[in-house]
Write a structure and sequence with these properties.
It contains seven helices and nine strands; from the N terminus they run βαβββαββαβαβααβα. By secondary structure, it is an alpha/beta fold. A hairpin with a 2-residue loop joins strand 5 and strand 6.
Length: 208
């Protein structure tokens, strides 16, 4: 005998704030670029920075490139969700862009360094924190060398800091290994994390 009973269950649709972090050279930019190419339905919050633009980067897409004076003005006016000085350059996440996207119901992904992730953890502990990393420090060293955007002294500093950053894993909810030549696999794992979060019985409550 068939039953017509159907449980009154609906999927939770509250927006997520996804924080993607990891050491320099982990491939955060490449992952986000690939996610855009594949049209993942996310709002990508563009970081503001005082760093010089690299040849392959697009202003307003990869970063908002601003002067140090402009960045300090953003800090003074409390327009940044978080900000930090990393390797001599300022980076920050624009607060209004995050709040507007959440209000519109978008799932948001932001790319920050470990300092930024620590700050956001205090402000929005219910965000989803993902640590992106190569499978080994040796591979990380090779990537930093191959991209030829830092001096040998800078690479040595980044490698040293990366070793310290690996000790901050307890801050994060998930770890994704971005192996050489397997970018799509890393992207798929991040997508799987988002899907799993959408299936939670008790949804995360994001408040900024």
């Amino acid at each position: 005998m068939s039953s017509s009973y159907e449980p009154a269950i609906t999927r939770q649709t509250k927006p997520l704030l996804i924080v993607l972090s990891g050491p320099s050279g982990a491939g955060k930019d490449a992952v986000l670029s690939r996610m855009r190419e594949l049209d993942y339905p996310l709002k990508y919050i563009t970081t503001v920075t005082t760093r010089h633009r690299r040849a392959s980067e697009r202003d307003g897409i990869d970063y908002h490139f601003v002067s140090t004076e402009k960045f300090q003005e953003l800090i003074k006016n409390e327009e940044l969700l978080e900000h930090a000085n990393v390797y001599g350059n300022w980076y920050g996440v624009p607060k209004k862009a995050v709040k507007d996207a959440l209000d519109e119901g978008w799932d948001i992904i932001v790319r920050v360094d470990i300092q930024g992730a620590t700050t956001i953890k205090k402000l929005a502990p219910e965000a989803v924190f993902i640590f992106l990393t190569p499978p080994s420090l040796e591979e990380l060293r090779e990537r930093l060398y191959e991209r030829l955007t830092e001096s040998s002294a800078d690479r040595a500093l980044r490698n040293k800091i990366a070793q310290e950053e690996m000790k901050q894993l307890a801050l994060f909810d998930y770890i994704v290994f971005n192996r050489q030549g397997e970018l799509d696999k890393a992207v798929a794992e991040i997508a799987a994390i988002i899907t799993a979060e959408k299936c939670r019985i008790k949804p995360r409550e994001i408040s900024i």
